[in-house]
Write a structure and sequence with these properties.
Length: 99
Amino acid sequence: MQPNRHILIHLDGRRPTRTVAVSLERCVVMIHRYTPDGLYDSSEVIDRLPTPAEACEALCQAHLSDHFAGLSQGDRADIIRRLALIAVGDAPPGEHRTR
């Protein structure tokens, strides 16, 4: 994903365990791990599209992402469109399907 052309949308609140990373070219899910005392440990990119439920949740949370506000209006619209297509089960052309 190109710098400044993607956003991270945290799905699980302040200490997210799942994040949807959306760019103008691709959309993937990331899983985050924390230590038993609640500190960030590591992240892993899961090479799959978000499920329709995850895409719906990401649509609802997108406006809360600091990265989203920094994009141009056109780029924001493209990201919302990509998430909406995934949410209704119609991945954008060229996207890989959920495994």
